[in-house]
Each structure stands twice: as structure tokens, then as C-alpha cells.
């Protein structure tokens, strides 16, 4: 996809500073950018963003009609652009209809974007247990993130209804057979349906 093929968003959520994740961000400079404070600082200084929300791991903020909770990802972070400031930790986002609570009703339809990450027990012990996502996008391309097997374990730990593989088939080191990911998810005993989407395809969670 090119930026011209994406509807103009109200919010842009950046997980970390690697080039394949920030390359097109400035095309959406009129949106509100949500990220860790360090990435927000970079976006303000180098990408022209004026409307930003800097948040740190564990925090929840209202973004329009939704709530965004930020959690860590097990990955590296860096820019390779000559920017000489700290760029913080990589992250993932949990997006929910309502603010997550223990004492009230559940948070409505909830989606977890894991960011670039390896398998981590926080997926089971915090995100799956307390934030209870209905669906998750998990990297499955291997080499730079977890591969199909660890991604399948993540899907099982998260106990989601729908799983979306991501971060694969964009260049040779991360080429995978998505059928293998489907098989690995089934092998965990998970009831999740794996949704393999094309780049211009959408999916509605209900």
C-alpha cells in the first residue's frame, strides 16, 4: 500500500522507530500521532507532526471514541537517520471501545496490535488475562520477529477469536507459508480463526 491508498486517519499509532514502520508516517501529518514520548519527540522534530500524544508503557489514553493502551514489545529500536536522541522502547497497542477496568463491564470489542516482537509471557499474563482482546495482529515472519510457531503460541495465550499474521512476505528473510501458521495455531488447541488478509483488504470486528 502507498499512503495515497489509505483513508485519511484521525490517529497514527507508531510502535517503534525502524524504517519500515515510520517511512510513510509523515504523509499523515495532519493526524494525531500516538507513541512513546521519545518517538513523539522525533515525529515533532523530524516528521512535522504538531498534534501528538506521548504515552508510556502501561498507560491508557482516549483517542476519539476508542481507548488505546500501550504495552511493551520485545524488540530493538533505532532510527539510522542521524537523529541523535534516545528513541525509547518498542511497543504494541491494545485498542478498545471502552476503558479497560476490573470492576466494571468489559471494554467492548478489543484489538491487540503486538508490534514487532518476540513471544513474551506478558501476552498471557497481562494482555490476555486482563485486557482480553477479541482479535490480535501478531508478527509471524521470523528472522526479525517471532515466526509462525511462536506467533501461534502467542495467539493461544491471548485467547483471541481472530488472529491476523503480519510482518511477513515483504522481503526474502521474512517470507513464510501462511498455511503453516494456520496449522501451528490449530496445533496449540486454540479456537482462533486465522485471517490472512491482502494489503488492501479490510476486516470488521463485531
Shape: globular
Count of spatially separate domains: 2
| Quantity of strands, as a count | 10
In the CATH scheme, what's the topology name of the largest domain?
Metallo-beta-lactamase, Chain A
Distance between the termini: 25 Å
Q: What percentage of amino acids are in beta strands?
A: 15-25%
Description of the structure:
Helix 3 runs parallel beside helix 4 and helix 4 crosses helix 5 (178-187). It is built from five helices and ten strands; from the N terminus they run βαβαβββββαβαβαβ. The mean pLDDT is 93. The strands form two sheets. A seven-stranded mixed sheet has the order 4-5-6-7-8-9-10. It has 206 residues and is of the alpha/beta class. Helix content is 22%, strand content 21%. It folds into two domains: 1-108, Metallo-beta-lactamase, Chain A (4-Layer Sandwich); 116-197, Ribonuclease Z/Hydroxyacylglutathione hydrolase-like (Metallo-beta-lactamase, Chain A). The protein has helices at 19-22, 37-47, 122-131, 148-158, 178-187, and strands spanning 11-13, 32-35, 52-54, 60-63, 66-72, 91-96, 110-113, 135-139, 162-166, 193-194. The longest helix is centred in the N-terminal third of the chain and has 11 residues, at 37-47. The two termini are 25 Å apart.
